[in-house]
Each structure stands twice: as structure tokens, then as C-alpha cells.
Design goal:
The protein is an all-alpha fold and about 200 residues long. The chain has one domain. About 85% of the residues lie in helices and about 0% in strands. The protein has helices at about 1-20, 25-40, 45-55, 60-90, 95-115, 125-130, 135-145, 150-170, 170-199. α4 (about 60-90) packs antiparallel against α7 (about 135-145) and α5 (about 95-115) runs parallel beside α7 (about 135-145).
Length: about 200
């Protein structure tokens, strides 16, 4: 059962990389736009970041991943600020909303930056939730830019390494890629379970 799955995954990955590489100059437009979409929608950003590393290499891939994620984060923040905040003011009692604002403001940039650096906390959730609070736009942007940089570099470098390995030893690269994804999923689930247990 595992062998056919691995073979099918290899074929899909091959097709995807080929499709991206054959897109020509358009790939430099589509890849950042895809990262923007990932930052707005609840889609895990790790796989696109690794794919950017495989296709563009470590430096360009990291730049595309990082800049696209920042733009998407700002779009999410602005949408939440424009449409979500008025809705929250109608649905949540003023004292509760004021308490949430005080909590966020007391945590300040340090709290926002800390949350950004924790890989298990959903990137998209932070974008939308921050827009609902009274945190400043400038603070949101610079903490996002710094906070997501390590992850963008690590996952893009992983993708670049897997891409180089894939060209030489495709089965080994796929096995390592699946192992990395399983470890990421396990870490995230364990962190969330421990967070729920503390509440």
C-alpha cells in the first residue's frame, strides 16, 4: 500500500515541478500570488514554501515565500480591520472587546512577535485575529516580516535541498519529504493538544 502511494506521489510531484518550470516568466508572477493566497486562506504555507525552494532555489525561493506571505498577511489584516471589526463590535459585548484590546495592547509587539515565531500557531489565524484588535498596522507589518523570516528560510532551504536530492535520488527525496511533513504535523498537533490541556 505504501509503495503505490510513494510512486503516485512521485509522479504528481514530477508533473507539478515540470508544469511550474515550463510556465516560463509567468512563474515569477504566479508563485508570489499563490503565497499571497496561502496567507489569506487557511492553507498550510510549508508545502508551497518548500516547492518555491525546489523550483527557484534557496535565495529566490525564500524571497518569493517571504514577500508573498507578508503581502497576504497585510491583505488579511486589512480585510479583518475593515469588515471584521465592525462585525465583532455587533456580536461581542463592548466590555469583552475592550478586554481583548487591552490584552493585545499589553502584550504589545513582543507578544505578537513571539506568536509569529511559534510554528504551531496558524499563520492565517494570526493575520485575521490581529485585524480584529486595535494593534497598529505598522507594528503588525514589521513583526510579521521579522517573525515569518526564519520559517520562510528553513522551509525554502528544505525544499531546495529536497529538489537537489530529488533530481539525483527521487525515491529518497520523497521519503524524506514525507517524513518531514509527518514530523511537522505531529509537532503541530502535539503543541495544540498541550495548549488545550493548559486552558
Amino acid at each position: 500500500m505504501i509503495v503505490p502511494f510513494v510512486r503516485k506521489s512521485m509522479e504528481m510531484l514530477d508533473s507539478l515541478v515540470y508544469l511550474i518550470e515550463e510556465s516560463g516568466a509567468w512563474v515569477y508572477v504566479l508563485a508570489p500570488l499563490f503565497m499571497v493566497a496561502v496567507a489569506i486562506l487557511p492553507i498550510p504555507a510549508e508545502i508551497p514554501a518548500m516547492l518555491n525552494g525546489m523550483v527557484f532555489g534557496a535565495r529566490v525561493g525564500a524571497l518569493i515565500t517571504w514577500s508573498g506571505a507578508i503581502v497576504g498577511a497585510v491583505v488579511s489584516f486589512e480585510l479583518a480591520r475593515r469588515f471584521g471589526r465592525p462585525l465583532a463590535e455587533k456580536l461581542v459585548s463592548p466590555p469583552a472587546l475592550a478586554k481583548a484590546d487591552r490584552l493585545v495592547l499589553s502584550a504589545g509587539w513582543k507578544g505578537l512577535l513571539t506568536v509569529r515565531l511559534i510554528p504551531a500557531v496558524a499563520f492565517t489565524l494570526i493575520n485575521w485575529a490581529a485585524g480584529l484588535t486595535s494593534i497598529g498596522r505598522a507594528t503588525f507589518v514589521w513583526t510579521t516580516a521579522i517573525g515569518i523570516l526564519p520559517g520562510a528560510i528553513v522551509f525554502t532551504l528544505s525544499g531546495a535541498g529536497l529538489g537537489a536530492l530529488y533530481r539525483r535520488h527521487p525515491q529518497l527525496a520523497l521519503a524524506l519529504g514525507l517524513l518531514v511533513l509527518v514530523l511537522i504535523a505531529w509537532t503541530v498537533l502535539r503543541f495544540r493538544a498541550s495548549a488545550r490541556a493548559e486552558v
